[in-house]
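B., you asked whether I could sanity-check this one before it goes into the benchmark set. Here's the sequence:
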Amino acid sequence: MDVVGRKTTILSMKPLFLSLVGYVLALSRSDALAQQTSAPPATLKVSIVIPEMADFQGQHAVPRTLINQQPDGHFHVVLENVSDHAITLMGEGNPLSFELAEADGAVLKLEQSELSGSRRGLGFRLAPGELRVLEVYYTTQEQYFAVTRHAPSPGRMWAPEFPFTPHKDKTVTLRAVYEQRPSGPSTQEAFWTGRVVSVPCKVVLVYP
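And here's what the prediction gave me:
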């Protein structure tokens, strides 16, 4: 009876053992698939730099604000190589744009025709940890003319059309988007390609 009982127990454990083996194999396949489909390590980071202002005691911080007043009003966008190897960015095209979300949920995309600070046809190389600072001018053409009494020159740096409302402050959520698509196999090998988005930030648009 003991021998028969042990045989019965062993036979009854075989389905359980096979189930455990199948479960382990399934987990292994799942982990391997996850490693294959996971996103590669980031190489480029884009950030919007619009600092909050504070008084001399460091108190009473003023929200990030863009004032449509001076003809040279601008803020900065920073590109940073966060990888462990040098990368080369293309200088031509219009890789920098902005996504602006208003309080009602409407999203506006602002694109430029020229990349500030670059020459068409020439790229620029960033070593690991190196930064490149882009200037973004935002004064509207109407305000520019009101102050300077002449229209912006054709070679003026890009000024995205932010939705300023006269005599009314407007709070929006702003994100910078830097995207460079490959134009061919050789371009993809020589230059960085991809799409990176900045951390969204609240900005107050002021049109006095």
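One thing to flag: Residues 1-38 form one domain. Otherwise nothing jumped out at me.
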